[in-house]
C-alpha cells in the first residue's frame, strides 16, 4: 500500500476549543477513504489543515513520504492536493472552462487559449464521466453540475489526493450514486480520495477504509468490508443508538388541522412556483413533503406559515379559518436556516427561547422578570438536552445541533395545533437526529398536525405517515412510508411510477 | 469641416480624457473587487505632481512620468488601507481625498511659495499632436492614448490569463484563494495600476487641458469617474458614453461662457448635466431590467 498523504499528530486549537487532538490519518493511492464523525468532531478542521487553509499548532503533513509545509491552498495545490468544498468555491459569472482552468490556464501567444481550455474540460469530462458544458456560466448551473466543475478543476490541476467535504449534502440520491461511481473511476487511476461525511450509508457504500473522529480524536479505524453501521455509530458517538421502537402508526382523527386548497404561487417573473396544490394534514399525523430542491417547497412552507400571501388563488385554512399573514401564532415553525430565520442571532439563548411566549411570563404591561425568563430557559434546556455554558450566551454561539434543539424547544412548547418542520436533521449528528425524531413523534402523538419537509428520503420514510411528492410545483404523487427510495426518487424527478 | 467645429470636437475629447483615464482606473479596481472611490484624490495628486516635476525639469514628458510614479506611490497608501487592512472603502476614500486636497495645498505653498493658482513660463505643457508632426491640430497625445488604454484594458481583462484571474478575484475572493490564487496580490496590483492611470489623468488635466496647477483643480472629475464606473456595468467600453457626456457638457459650458453665461453657471453646468443624464440613464436601465426577487 503506497501512502499518498499522511497527517501526523495534528493538533489544532481555536481559542478554548480543541478541534483536533493528535490526529493521525493516512490515505493510500487508489483508495476511497471515508472520514466520519458527528458535527464538530473535527473533520472539516482536519481537511482544512491538509489543504493549507489552517496551520496546525503541532503535527505535520507528509506527501508521498516527504514532509511538506502548507501555508496556503496554493502550496497544497502545488503538492498535488485538491479539495471540493462543502460550500462551492466557484466563480458564478465565469464559464465552466474558465472555472476549471483558472490558476493553471493554457496560454498561447500571451492570450488565454479558450479552445485549449474547452478541450481540457471535454477530455476530463469524457474520461471520468463528469458531464459539464464548458461554455456554460457556472451561476446558471444546478448544484450537481457545479460540484462536477469543482472536481474537474482538481483533476485539471492533476490532484493526486482529492478531498471532498460532505459532497452529497447538496445532491439527490441518484446524483450521489453517480458521484460515487465517478470517485471509483478517479481512484482507479491512482488518486487517493478522502470522503468527509456523516452519512453512514454512504460510508458503507462508497469507501474502502474508514477513520472515525470524535471530539477531535481518532476513535476508530476500519476497513469498510470488515465493519458495519453499529460499530461505526459506536465509534462516532461513544454509545449505540437505541433501536427504533416498532413503528406506531398515526391515529389521525377529526377534521383537518391544516388545509391547503388549490394553492397557486407565482414568482416575481410570473413563473408559477406552485400550481393548484391541495392537501390536508389531520391532527395526529405527520405528512412529509419530498421533492428535489426548488420544486416549490420554499413557497409552500412560506404560504402555510403565513410568511407570504397565498397568491392569486388558493386558501390556507387552520382549523377551517384562513391563515393569518406574517407568522400565524397557531402554526409553530422550525425553519431550515438555523442561524437566519430560525433564531435571532443577537439574542441570548434565554431570550430566543422566550420569543412567542413572552405574554405568559409578563407581569402587567412592562414587567418581564428576567429571573423567570432565565429559569424557564434553564428548564427548557434541561428538558430538551440543550448543552450551553449558560442561558445568557448568544444563541448564535450554539453548535448546529444545540441550536436546532433550542428552536424545537421554543416551537414545540407553543402548543400550536400545527407544526411545520424543514430539514430537521440537516447538519446535525446522529445523536441529535434521534432526539429530534423522538420529539416530533411525541408531538404527533399528542395530536399535533405535523408538516415535514426533508431532502433526506430516509428521514421522510422513518417519520412521515404519508409522503407527498412535489415536482415542478405540482403535487404529483402520494406514498405510504414503505415506498422504496427508488420509487420516491422517480416521482421526484418527474418519472412517474 | 470648419475650424470652429473641429476645435469644439477637440475640446470635447480633451475634457473627456482625464475623466476617462481615472474611470478606467476605478473600473479595474471594481473588476478585482476593490471599491475604489478615492479617484478624486488620486487625480488631484497626479495633477499636482505632474506640475511639480514639469516645472523642475522643464519637460512635460518628465512631468507625465513623474505624475505616474508619484501617484502609484500615493496609491500604495490606498492599497494598504483598503486591501491589506480591509478598511471601509468610504472612509478610505474620504481620507485619501482630503489628504490629497490638504497635502497639495500645503506643498504648493512650500514649493511654489503661494497658494491659489500656479503657472510659470518654466512650466512645460504637453505638446499637441500637430507639434509632434501629426496632421491633427489641437489634440494632445494623452487623449488618443486614453482611448487606446480603454481598448487595451478590455482586451487584457477579457482575453488574458491575468485578466481572468483579476475577474475571478473580484467575483469571489475565497474561491480565488481556494483555486490557489493570491487574491491580495492581485488587489494590490490593480490599485497601483489605477494609481498609474490617475497619474496620467492628472498629467492630462494639468499639462494638457491647461498648463497650470490650482488648488482643488480636479474639481469633482474623480467623482464623475466613480459614477461612470458604477453605471458602466464594469465594461470598459461603456465608460465612454458617460465620460464623453461630461466632455461635451464641459465644452458646451466653455462656449456658453464665451457667449456671456456667468462663469459660475458655466463651471457648474457639466456636473449638473452629467449627473442628471447619468441618473436618467440608470433609471431607464432599471426600468428595462426589473429587479428579480422571489419574495
UniProtKB/TrEMBL annotation, chain A:
Where do the coiled-coil regions begin and end? none
InterPro entries, from UniProt? AAA+_ATPase, ABC_carbohydrate_import_ATPase, ABC_transporter-like_ATP-bd, ABC_transporter-like_CS, P-loop_NTPase
For the ABC transporter domain, which residue ranges apply?
5-240, 258-497
Q: Name one GO molecular function term.
A: ATP hydrolysis activity
Does the record's keyword annotation contain Signal?
no
**Highest taxon of source:** Bacteria
Q: Keyword annotations for this protein?
A: ATP-binding, Nucleotide-binding
Against SMART domains, the record matches this protein to: AAA
Kindly give the Pfam families that the UniProt entry links to this protein: ABC_tran
| Gene3D superfamilies hit by this protein | P-loop containing nucleotide triphosphate hydrolases
Answer whether the UniProt record assigns the keyword Membrane to this protein.
no
The record's SUPFAM superfamilies line, in alphabetical order, gives: P-loop containing nucleoside triphosphate hydrolases
Which PANTHER family does this chain map to? CARBOHYDRATE TRANSPORT ATP-BINDING PROTEIN MG119-RELATED, GUANOSINE IMPORT ATP-BINDING PROTEIN NUPO
Q: What is this protein called?
A: Heme ABC transporter ATP-binding protein
From TrEMBL, chain B:
How is the protein disposed in the membrane?
Multi-pass membrane protein
The record, for CDD domains, names: TM_PBP1_transp_TpRbsC_like
List locations, semicolon-separated.
Cell membrane
Pfam families to which the protein is assigned, alphabetical:
BPD_transp_2
MF term (GO), any: transmembrane transporter activity
Span-the-membrane segments of this chain are: 12-39, 59-78, 90-112, 132-155, 223-248, 268-285
This protein's record includes keyword Membrane:
yes
Keywords assigned: Cell membrane, Membrane, Transmembrane, Transmembrane helix
Q: Does the keyword Oxidoreductase apply?
A: no
| Domain of life assignment | Bacteria
| One GO CC term on file | plasma membrane
What PANTHER family does the database record attribute to this sequence?
Answer: GUANOSINE ABC TRANSPORTER PERMEASE PROTEIN NUPQ (PTHR43370:SF1), SUGAR ABC TRANSPORTER INTEGRAL MEMBRANE PROTEIN-RELATED (PTHR43370)
Q: What is this protein called?
A: Sugar ABC transporter permease
Organism encoding this protein: Acrocarpospora corrugata
> What lineage, starting at the top, does this entry show?
Bacteria, Bacillati, Actinomycetota, Actinomycetes, Streptosporangiales
Amino acid at each position: 500500500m503506497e501512502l499518498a498523504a499522511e497527517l501526523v499528530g495534528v493538533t489544532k486549537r481555536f481559542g478554548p476549543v480543541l478541534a483536533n487532538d493528535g490526529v493521525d490519518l493516512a490515505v493510500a493511492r487508489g483508495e476511497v477513504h471515508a472520514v466520519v464523525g458527528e458535527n464538530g468532531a473535527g473533520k472539516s478542521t482536519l481537511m482544512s489543515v491538509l489543504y493549507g487553509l489552517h496551520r496546525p499548532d503541532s503535527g505535520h503533513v507528509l506527501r508521498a513520504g516527504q514532509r511538506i509545509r502548507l501555508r496556503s491552498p496554493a502550496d497544497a495545490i502545488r503538492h498535488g492536493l485538491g479539495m471540493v468544498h462543502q460550500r462551492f468555491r466557484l466563480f458564478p459569472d465565469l464559464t465552466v472552462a474558465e472555472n476549471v482552468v483558472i490558476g493553471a490556464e493554457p496560454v498561447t501567444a500571451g492570450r488565454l487559449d479558450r479552445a485549449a481550455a474547452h478541450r481540457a474540460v471535454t477530455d476530463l469530462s469524457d474520461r471520468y464521466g463528469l458531464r459539464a458544458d464548458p461554455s456554460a456560466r457556472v451561476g446558471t448551473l444546478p448544484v450537481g453540475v457545479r460540484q462536477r466543475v469543482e472536481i474537474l478543476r482538481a483533476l485539471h490541476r492533476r490532484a493526486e489526493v482529492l478531498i471532498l467535504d460532505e459532497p452529497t449534502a447538496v445532491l439527490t440520491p441518484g446524483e450521489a450514486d453517480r458521484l460515487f461511481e465517478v470517485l471509483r473511476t478517479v481512484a482507479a487511476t491512482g488518486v487517493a480520495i478522502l470522503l468527509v461525511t456523516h452519512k453512514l450509508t454512504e460510508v458503507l457504500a462508497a469507501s474502502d477504509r474508514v477513520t472515525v473522529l470524535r471530539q477531535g480524536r481518532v476513535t476508530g479505524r476500519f476497513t469498510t468490508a470488515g465493519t458495519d453501521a453499529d460499530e461505526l455509530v459506536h465509534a462516532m458517538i461513544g454509545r449505540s443508538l437505541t433501536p427504533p421502537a416498532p413503528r406506531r402508526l398515526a391515529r389521525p382523527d377529526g377534521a383537518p388541522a391544516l388545509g391547503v386548497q388549490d394553492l397557486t404561487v407565482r414568482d416575481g417573473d410570473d413563473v408559477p412556483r406552485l400550481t393548484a396544490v391541495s392537501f390536508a394534514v389531520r391532527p395526529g399525523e405527520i405528512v412529509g413533503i419530498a421533492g428535489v430542491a426548488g420544486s416549490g417547497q420554499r413557497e409552500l412552507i412560506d404560504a402555510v406559515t403565513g410568511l407570504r400571501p397565498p397568491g392569486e388563488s388558493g386558501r390556507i385554512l387552520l382549523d377551517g379559518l384562513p391563515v393569518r399573514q406574517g407568522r400565524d401564532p397557531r402554526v409553530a415553525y422550525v425553519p431550515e436556516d438555523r442561524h437566519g430565520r430560525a433564531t435571532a442571532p443577537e439574542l441570548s439563548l434565554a431570550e430566543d427561547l422566550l420569543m412567542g411566549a413572552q405574554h405568559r411570563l409578563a407581569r402587567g404591561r412592562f414587567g418581564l422578570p428576567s429571573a423567570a425568563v432565565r429559569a424557564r430557559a434553564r428548564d427548557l434546556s434541561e428538558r430538551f438536552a440543550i448543552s450551553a455554558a449558560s442561558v445568557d450566551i448568544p444563541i448564535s454561539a450554539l453548535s448546529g445541533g444545540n441550536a436546532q434543539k433550542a428552536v424545537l424547544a421554543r416551537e414545540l412548547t407553543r402548543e400550536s395545533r400545527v407544526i411545520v418542520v424543514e430539514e430537521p436533521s440537516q447538519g446535525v449528528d446522529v445523536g441529535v437526529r434521534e432526539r429530534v425524531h423522538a420529539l416530533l413523534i411525541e408531538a404527533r402523538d399528542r395530536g399535533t398536525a405535523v408538516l415535514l419537509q426533508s431532502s433526506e428520503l430516509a428521514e421522510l420514510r422513518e417519520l412521515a405517515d404519508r409522503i407527498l411528492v412535489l415536482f415542478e410545483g405540482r403535487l404529483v404523487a402520494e406514498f405510504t412510508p414503505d415506498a422504496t427510495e427508488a420509487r420516491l426518487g422517480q416521482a421526484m424527478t418527474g418519472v412517474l411510477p | 469641416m470648419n475650424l470652429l467645429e473641429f476645435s469644439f470636437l477637440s475640446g470635447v475629447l480633451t475634457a473627456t480624457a482625464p475623466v476617462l483615464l481615472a474611470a478606467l482606473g476605478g473600473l479595474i479596481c471594481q473588476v478585482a473587487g476593490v471599491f475604489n472611490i478615492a479617484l478624486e484624490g488620486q487625480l488631484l495628486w497626479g495633477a499636482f505632481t505632474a506640475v511639480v516635476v514639469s516645472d523642475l525639469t522643464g519637460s512635460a514628458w518628465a512631468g507625465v512620468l513623474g505624475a505616474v510614479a508619484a501617484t502609484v506611490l500615493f496609491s500604495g497608501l490606498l492599497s494598504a488601507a483598503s486591501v491589506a487592512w480591509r478598511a471601509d472603502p468610504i472612509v478610505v476614500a474620504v481620507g485619501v481625498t482630503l489628504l490629497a486636497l490638504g497635502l497639495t495645498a500645503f506643498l504648493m505653498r512650500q514649493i511654489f511659495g503661494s497658494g491659489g493658482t500656479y503657472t510659470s513660463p518654466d512650466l512645460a505643457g504637453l505638446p499637441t499632436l500637430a507639434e509632434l508632426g501629426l496632421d491633427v491640430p489641437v489634440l494632445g497625445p494623452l487623449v488618443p492614448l486614453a482611448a487606446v488604454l480603454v481598448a487595451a484594458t478590455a482586451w487584457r481583462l477579457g482575453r488574458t490569463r491575468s485578466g481572468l484571474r483579476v475577474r475571478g478575484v473580484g467575483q469571489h475572493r475565497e474561491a480565488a484563494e481556494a483555486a490557489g490564487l493570491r487574491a491580495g496580490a492581485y488587489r494590490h496590483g490593480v490599485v497601483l495600476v489605477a494609481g498609474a492611470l490617475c497619474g496620467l489623468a492628472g498629467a492630462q488635466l494639468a499639462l494638457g487641458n491647461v498648463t497650470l496647477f490650482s488648488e482643488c483643480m480636479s474639481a469633482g472629475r474623480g467623482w464623475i469617474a466613480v459614477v461612470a464606473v458604477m453605471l458602466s456595468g464594469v465594461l470598459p467600453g461603456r465608460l465612454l458614453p458617460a465620460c464623453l457626456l461630461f466632455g461635451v457638457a464641459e465644452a458646451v459650458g466653455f462656449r456658453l461662457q464665451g457667449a456671456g453665461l456667468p462663469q459660475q453657471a458655466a463651471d457648474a453646468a457639466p456636473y449638473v448635466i452629467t449627473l442628471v443624464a447619468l441618473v436618467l440613464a440608470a433609471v431607464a436601465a432599471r426600468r428595462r431590467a426589473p429587479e428579480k426577487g422571489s419574495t
